[in-house]
Amino acid sequence: MASKITSKRRSLDLSKLAPESVAVRAGTRRSQEYQEHSEALYLTSSFCFNSAEEAEHGFANAESGFIYSRFTNPTVSMFQDRLAALEGGEACIATASGMAAIMTTAMAHLKAGDHVVCSRSVFGATIQLFGSILGRFGITTSYVDLSDNKAWQAAVQPNTRMFYLETPSNPLTEIADIRAIAKIANKANALFVVDNCFCTPALQRPLDFGADVIIHSATKYLDGQGRVLGGAIVGKKSFIMDKVFPYVRTAGPTLSAFNAWVFLKGLETLDLRMKQQSANALALAQWLEKQAGVEAVYYPGLRSHRQFSLAKKQQKAGGAILSFVLKGGKKAAFKLIDQTTLCSITANLGDTRTTITHPATTTHCRVSPEARKAAGISDGLVRIAVGLENTDDLIRDLQGGFKK
Question: Listing from the earlier edge strand, what are the strands of the sheet with 231-235?
Answer without folding.
Answer: 91-95, 231-235, 213-217, 191-195, 160-166, 115-119, 140-144
